[in-house]
Design goal:
The chain has five helices and five strands; from the N terminus they run E-H-H-H-E-E-E-H-E-H. The protein has helices spanning about 10-15, 20-30, 40-50, 105-120, 135-140; strands at about 1-5, 55-60, 65-75, 85-95, 125. A hairpin with a 3-residue loop joins strand 2 (about 55-60) and strand 3 (about 65-75).
């Protein structure tokens, strides 16, 4: 398996792999997530994202692209409540189910960790929706600990 940095020209690859993560969200929460966003729109979205200075993105390949991770470097200034810090925020992690259980997600997470360390970050953060038991179990096994709970109430 090869993990490589993603570049702007990889936007279509991310768009094609995105349904592997997005579909589960859209199926459970179509009130929040769009169902089947068009490939061209996804490609344009990722092309814009991949050229941002704060974006760190990686593609996993096993004869072909089988997964990706997209993260962002976040630099927070000190304020009366919080200390100044830099952290890396994992926004998306997608793996083709045909490549599942082969270490793809773990290696992508490690690439994100390394990118964060290079930027002087002291933490890696991500979020998981409560219904996604598989993702919660994966992240726990990868060493993540629960940090907070975000609550919602329909109006």
């Amino acid at each position: 398996m090869k993990i490589r940095a993603a570049a702007a020209e990889d936007a279509r690859i991310l768009a094609l792999l995105n349904p592997h993560v997005h579909a589960a969200h859209a199926a459970r929460r179509p009130d929040v997530y769009r169902v089947d966003p068009p490939e061209e729109e996804l490609t344009n979205y990722f092309a814009t994202l991949l050229v941002k200075d704060v974006t760190r993105a990686f593609i996993a390949e096993i004869d072909r692209p089988v997964g990706y991770a997209v993260a962002a470097i976040v630099r927070r200034e000190e304020n009366p409540f919080l200390r100044a810090e830099s952290f890396i925020l994992l926004n998306q992690l997608a793996v083709d189910p045909q490549a599942a259980r082969r270490g793809v997600a773990s290696q992508l997470i490690e690439a994100v960790r390394d990118a964060g360390r290079l930027e002087g970050c002291r933490r890696l953060l991500t979020d998981v929706l409560d219904f996604n038991e598989g993702a919660k179990a994966f992240y726990a096994a990868a060493g993540f600990a629960e940090l907070k709970h975000v609550l919602e109430q329909p109006l």
